[in-house]
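The following record pairs a protein chain with its ligand, pyridoxal-5'-phosphate.
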Amino acid sequence: MASVEQEAASPHIWRGREGDPAGLRSGRPVVWLRSPQAHVSCQKRPVSIADIEEARARLERFRPALRALFPESHWDGNIQSALLDYPSTVGLANTPLVKADHALPLTGSIKARGGVYELLCRIEEIAQAEGILVPGGDYAGIADPEARAVLARHCMAVASTGNLGFSIGLVSRAFGLQAKVFMSREAKAWKKDRLIRLGVEVVELDCDYNETVDRGRAIARDAGAIFIDDTTSRDLLIGYAVAADEAIAQLSARGIAPTVAHPLVVYLPCGVGGAPGGVTFGLKHRLGDAVVCVFVEPIESACMLAALARGEGRSVSVYDLGLSNRTVADGLAVAVASELVLEVAGDLIDAVVALPDAAMTQWVGRAWHEAGLRLEPSAAAALGAIEPFLAARPDYADATHIAWTTGGSLLPDSEFEPLLTDWTAAQTIGQ
Ligand SMILES: *Cc1c(COP(=O)(O)O)cnc(C)c1O
């Protein structure tokens, strides 16, 4: 029996618009590569570098309030993660690096960036309208009981497969806001229970993520709640884009300055595309052709691959390709990619790797045993994409590689331990 590793060595490859959707049902990883294109510019897009500077300033203004609201963690209020060395080479010339967003403060997933950033935008608007915050004033005061009592009259709503709801729910409640989270079919029970304990109203909808967004938006509007919509939100994208400069500064501290001859290859797990799209926009703006952005999806939810391969700048439903949108990677279980992301970053995406579920769960175990990283399948996907991508593009073997691990440090043992058996089983079969 071929191990997942051996299969990964021979992925099914698509180039540009030359692809066969049947390849997505071969059980092997699928690698989509953009046809070579002229240099693309980051100017004249619906998101600009000025938006990112503004986001950084807003996050800095809110830092004292966040620190005051989450004192138990002895945290400085910065929503930042470490850049780590992965301890084995994974077939590369050098060990890959890990951008450890699975261990981000507050919520242990990349949603602590975009989700929390958009929430802070909305809180700032409400607080100014209510007169409890003056522009240029003291933002620490917004954590006081009087300010929280005013915010408690407002409700935030969001649709989620789990992690976005947790990020919005946790931080909304900390600021005193009411919160309503619409959970799609794949949301795990422990993610719902955790929200209920925080005093969040959890509304379970027996449908997929895109439909949950549509139904949640309508219910929130009728209830007078503010709906955070990650399929159409500029603010979310901008919040994610801030992470690019953080990673570039960390590389630079290691003496790494990517160039076209020695590029940076970044592996970014993709659901609707907001998180990887924002990071890609920020990286491409700073590094241009010296960075190669590889999105990673479960095969059954390969909505970004489907849209890019179609090449029309519009989203495509994975159901139309005969895919199920059922995957162990709950954070990536999305049938239709965001058209805003296609507009802002679609032409900046260099490749997409689509993985079978087994490859992601094996990497949950492998990252734990080799590196002590506690990852959920959606995040382990980033590491799992390296080998298939290099099989398609061996010329990148001595580039700098970053696997962006997007979530998992808060997984309870009861969820994490069953995922580890796959790696042990694979090791035994491989012998
Ligand atoms: C949400 C999420 C992603 C992808 O973010 P999108 O904005 O949906 O593309 C990746 N990994 C994890 C763990 C997530 O929760």
